Amino acid sequence: MALITYPAEVDIKEVSRRIQQWFHHKNFETRALKVDDSYIIKARKKSAFRAIVAADRALEVAARNFNGEAQVDVKQGSWKTNAISNAVWFVATGGMMLLVSGWSIVAQKELESRIRAILEDVAGAQEVDLFSK
Prior knowledge:
Shape: globular
Strand order of the largest sheet: 1-5-4-3-2
CATH architecture: 2-Layer Sandwich
Radius of gyration: 17 Å
Low-confidence stretches: none
Largest sheet: 5 strands, antiparallel
Distance between the termini: 40 Å
Number of strands: 5
Number of helices: 4
CATH class: Alpha Beta
Strand content: 25-35%
Number of domains: 1
Structural class: alpha+beta
Mean pLDDT: 82
CATH topology: TATA-Binding Protein
């Protein structure tokens, strides 16, 4: 779980659209919700094989502007398959969930990195060389 912030308000709908686009590019199934001025994107990789091996994991991303900054919260999703796939994996392997945990961590870290890049791009941030005159 991570709360990613950017020190300025940005077009949060555009940020959310690009996050959902990233999920689609990575072959996730998604749902997007709008709650007040926030956007919530629920994403998961879904297949019968993934459910059997407990890799049918969900991620949830909530994006909003708050107190003059953009905030994007990334966490494990709440789609019911997380609980079901965990139970199946526990029974099938005696509780060895290292592969699933590893996949979830890698996917989440990759997503967090992409979100930071999206925030900078939408905000119009530009990299500068502070050592040049």
